[in-house]
Amino acid sequence: MKTKITLFLLINIIFFYQAYAQCTGVDFEERNGIAILEMESKLAGSWQKESVTGASAGSALTYRGGNAFHTPGGSLITYAIKINSPGSYRFIWRSKISIIASQNPSSEHNDSWLKINGSDFYGKKGSHRVYPGGSGKSPVANGSTSGGYLKVYTNTVNWSWVTRTSDGDYHEIYADFNQAGIYTIQVSGRSSGHTIDRMVLYKESSYSASSAQNLSTAQTNCSGGSTPPTTPTPPTPPANNVPPTVSFSNITNGQNFAIGSSVTVGLSANDSDGSISKYQIFVNNTLVDTDGASYSPYLLSQLTAGSYAVKATVTDNSGASTSATVNFTVGGSTTPPPVPTPPTGNNPPTVNFTNFSNGQNFSVGGTLAIGLNANDTDGSISKHEIFVNNVLVDTDGTSYTPHPLALTSSGSYSIKATVTDNSGTSTSTTANITVGSGSPTPPTPPTGGSNNPIVNFSNLSNGQQVAIGSTVSVGVNASDTDGSIVKYQIYVDGILVDTDGSNYTPHPIVGISAGNHEIKVIVTDNSGATASSTIVIVAGSGTPTTPTNPTPTPSAISFNLINASSNASIGPLSNGTSLSSNDAQGVNVRANAPTNTQSVVFTLSGALSRSWTESAAPYALFGDTNGDYVSANLPNGSYSLKAVAYSGSNGSGSIIANTTINFSIAASSGLTAKTIAYPNPVKSDGRISLKLPAGTSGEYTYYVTNAIGIQLEQGEFTTSQSQTDVDLQLSNLGRQIPGVYYLTLVSSVSKQTIPIVRE
Question: What is the mean pLDDT of residues 169-187?
Fold first, then answer.
């Protein structure tokens, strides 16, 4: 008997020793496809454990050392993790920004270095991957990365699970573990003031993002247990979820505000057994704002007279929702309006074509104005969209202007109209038509000129006053001396409200509200070049810009050419500057704007076209992250660069500086300025080769369209500075009738359209 007892104890001792040994030096383990750890469990260097409001365990890890933007490895914390079930895991951490910058706070003090020493470590966006610098793999993530570390950032000041890498083209973080074992995760300080709460590795095949982010799930501290089943069971949600609560913090029912005032919608929300995952704001039953876990107070600006019902709906991490409504008035009596009766259920809108029917035939050479009849019985139509052969060709807001479809070539066309109501419900209708019979006449190829289009407003002027509540028609004059205009876009207060093809119909601004409104038009010609014009009009009383009250002459903006590798200035970029092609590779352009600038809008046209808005200094044409400039290669040719500085973010407010310069990049050593496509004409096999400008590198997306903009092909390819010849197989183009088609090449910094003849 004693022998049996002794043997039993010995077996147990061995078991517990093995379990302990499996976890010796291991901080946490993966169980059933998920691993969770509070990151403040370890400290090193300038990392500090701090008591932070909202942290899952009451405290979090904050980096308080100096910025290390280009050199990872300082203040290094190494976590050991035991992987039981091999496979691919997504990595996320919950972080926030603890040092709030005076300008653009969501992109300062917002990142740390990360290295996962697994079988593979990378960023992923769809099927595309990027790798850390120094890993020996390509392509490498944009921005600073070296030594096998990725720069991992958030773009939210408050707590969030945003965990991304690759500047300007964000990718999520992933790691592969090919076999069970012990691996390490290394975190190094980069931006002072970045706070991290907990990290999670999980299999996306087993867990949703919301379940992985559930703060009520406990850490998976190492227990030394055996490998779990190959099919993991997700954690069981709480049996009785307590709904969240929400109330307005600064608006009371029946409150009255002055006409023209602005009201910030403040909220107080809580979830006693979880966290808030979504905030929604409705004004008079229309959804106007949606936020995730962190709510940014919604601003009701330039309020006009009337009654308002504002509803806030919050949703917790288990899917339960709660709403609160407040009613107030603007102008007139302070008597609160009656509480509106919410609809029992939204009725979807209706839409049909008014001037043609399914199967109808039209002659070649005409134009079909696509007429619609749309209605919403319990609300209003907020958006109209027209698709031709599944390509979006026209977008209108509340007021629809018939889209003109040029019937220039014979064939079959599928026309779809989609309308969306003010509650977000959409309805579509589709009709199929045919054009002509027999062989069509090939479209006339473009002249292939290089002059940019021009555009201006035909019926509105800068500073013009209009009546509050009136309908303002936006008329445009545009021309192209060596081609034709193929697209018109109208922006009102920074929002795209209208898109037309080659025929522009004036956009109506219905019931314009009081205050200043910026109107911008952008036109694109058949070679891909763009031009824009911007004015500000005033609805109601205000200080308009008129001949008797002129706008002060804005101060100038200067430019510097930047070496994107060292982030150092190469020198000034001035009007008339001529650069060699070698000096225009791996560069960026910085605009030096007045100190009161809040944003700069760039427009680059010429051999490469780009429109870009920067809302934080340094103001860079191709973007930057915390002063780390994005690299671009400028092909040879002539350029026009315009920069407009605004007093508000995202190109809003008043214009405080406006400068346009012209410069050129000269060909040297036989470098070509643009991509050459050959053979051209293309035969029925659809084979074509591209010779890109020397020094070109990166990822490209290509499209092939016919003369009226219907897309026939789409694909991607990657090129390097040492390999600029690319072969494409355009099978659909090979099957088309003889005529002229257009191949468009798009990279992160360039766009070029090449006419292709199908013989």
Answer: 91
Q: Calculate the alpha carbon distances from 500 to 392, 419, 610, 615 in Å.
A: 10, 16, 20, 28
CA dist., res. 616 & res. 593, Å (int): 11
Q: Are 658 and 716 contained in the same domain?
A: no
**172, β-bridge pairs:** 124, 164
| 237 assigned to some structural domain | no
pLDDT in tens, 105-125: 788 889 999 999 988 999 999
Which of 203, 198, 157, 143 has the alpha carbon at shortest distance from 177? 203
Distance of alpha carbon 286 from alpha carbon 463, whole angstroms: 31
| Domain termination residue (choose one: 285, 302, 330) | 330
Contact residues for 614 (Cβ-Cβ < 8 A; gap 6+): 591, 599, 600, 602, 620, 623
**pLDDT tens-digit readout, 239-250:** 567 888 899 988
Residue of 687, 701, 678, 677 whose CA lies nearest to 749? 701
Residue 125 in domain: yes
Mean pLDDT of 7-18: 43
Threshold 0.90, pTM exceeds: no
Given a contact cutoff of 8 angstroms between Cβ atoms, the answer to whether 435 and 706 are in contact is: no
Name every residue whose Cβ is closer than 8 Å to that of residue 353 and which is 6 or more positions away in sequence.
370, 371, 372, 373, 415, 417, 429, 431
Confidence check: pLDDT of 289 > 80: no
Could you tell me if 465 and 598 lie in one domain? no
Same domain, 579 and 717: no
pLDDT at 552 over 70: no
Q: Does any domain span residue 221? A: no
Tell the burial category of 258 from Cβ atoms under 10 Å away from its Cβ (0-12, 13-18, 19+): exposed
Q: Rounded CA gap, 371 and 585, in Å?
A: 49
Residue from 243, 79, 62 nearest 159 by CA:
62
State the DSSP string of 59-118. EEEEE-S---SS---SS-EEEEEEESS-EEEEEEEEEEE-S--SS-GGGSS-EEEEEE-S
H or E stretch at 5: helix 2-23
Q: Which domain holds residue 371?
A: 350-435
Taking only the tens place, the pLDDT of each residue in 69-81 is 888 888 899 899 9
